[in-house]
Amino acid sequence: MSQSMKPAAAPAPNALAQRPMSPAAGVGVPARPQQTAPMVGDRRTLTVGKGISVQGTLSDCERLVVEGTVESEMLNAAELSIGATGVFRGEVQVEDAEIGGLFDGTLTARGNLVIRATGKVNGIARCKRLTVEDGGQLTGRMEMLTEGSMPTSPAAPAPSRPAPVV
């Protein structure tokens, strides 16, 4: 009995484009998940990992996550999150801040400021709403913001008293 071999027919040009590409079975690489809706975490996020130090001006960052060390003159962002191993020195204006490590400088949170049990804030802290967990520390000056006192630019130093005229 004789069998003739026919060449396999090539798939239609659009057939490949319609099939999702995934690695061959047994390769051990998971397929990339398909995202159907935008996630809340789609903000422009900068993460400074543990053991990493950054110094300078940060801009165009909506969310800053600090696990290492950051020294910045001014940061305007929507959210600041300092982990238990994180250190931030400088001045920031954010919507919300969560401090689990060390913040040293001037912090203005136009919304919520949360100081975790492992968190420590040194310097000036301004916020609309404050939460301090048991063990959290705040050393320095605390100012509660109201609708009329919301800063729109970096805070100016407090005016000094004029010396009495003799």
Query: Which percent bin holds the helix content?
Result: under 10%
Give the overall silhouette: globular
- Average pLDDT, rounded to a whole number, is 77
Q: Oligomerization state of this entry?
A: single chain
Rg over CA atoms, rounded to whole Å, is 27 Å
Overview of this protein structure:
- This protein has 166 residues and is mostly beta strands.
- The chain contains one helix and eight strands, in the order H-E-E-E-E-E-E-E-E.
Give the arrangement of secondary structure elements.
Elements: H1 13-18, E1 45-48, E2 53-55, E3 63-66, E4 69-82, E5 87-99, E6 102-115, E7 120-132, E8 137-144
Parallel strand pairs: 1-3, 2-4, 3-4, 4-5, 5-6, 6-7, 7-8
Summarize the structure.
By secondary structure, the chain is mainly beta.
Task: Provide keyphrases for this structure.
mainly beta; 166 residues; 1 helix; 44% strand
